[in-house]
Design goal:
The chain is mainly alpha-helical and 254 residues long. It has helices spanning 2-23, 29-45, 59-72, 75-98, 104-122, 130-147, 151-164, 183-203, 208-220, 227-247. The chain crosses the membrane at residues 6-24, 29-46, 58-73, 80-98, 104-123, 130-147, 153-172, 184-200, 206-224, 229-248. Keywords: Membrane, Transmembrane, Transmembrane helix.
Length: 254
Amino acid sequence: MQIQILLQTLVVPFFISVIAFRYLDERHALAGMVVAWLVSYFWILGKVPFVPQTAEELLWIFMGVAVLSRYFLQKNTFQYSLMGMFLAAIAAISWPVLSYEITVQFVLEMLLFVAAGSVVVVFKCRSDRPALLVVMGFTVLSLISALSGSLLIGQLAGSVSGVSAIYVLPEIRRYFRQKQMQDKTFSVLMLLYLLILYIARVFAEVELYVVIALMTAGLFGLFARKNTLLILTALMYIVSVAIMYSLGSDSSYY
């Protein structure tokens, strides 16, 4: 069981992304990463959900449409499309709760995620280590989700770390600098980060202050141009994990 989880979450997506990194140019980098992630994603779910029944089954549609938009839409149009897809995904994830009961707190939390998504779409990442930010964010989100009692959400988040890990190399070694993670790829992955975080909040009931800390760290990373700010972002993630660990994990799994 543990070996299967490791293969699904890290090993398989990493090696597929290595192949994509080696043979695809920058224009096709996002498509290669998404294909690598979808292999892991469908394996984790145990099926291909052509008709999504649960929140996490919606994610592949978001990523698939994002890739198609990358090829067929201009930069400004792509941003509007990306925001529209994000809003649609938030609405679809929220619908089971909203259809049962509408509360002020839930609506405010939903709007908080919408605002965070707007920041990701509107502002360009200023950090010269975007892939490192993505890997840090999804790794911490994976740990938080697992500690909260959702192995499934934890695996889905962890698989994005596996896919993105190869792109950390260009940020460390000058030899690979011609294949850095592009802004559009970073934006798509950060929106996916927010969607999985939202699912973790709504269905795995991760504590709100932990969610806010993870969201703040992810958005703060957008502007972490200097190493000092990058270290501060990492510390925010570490504190989030420490808080969640101190709360203890749930015995039930979503």
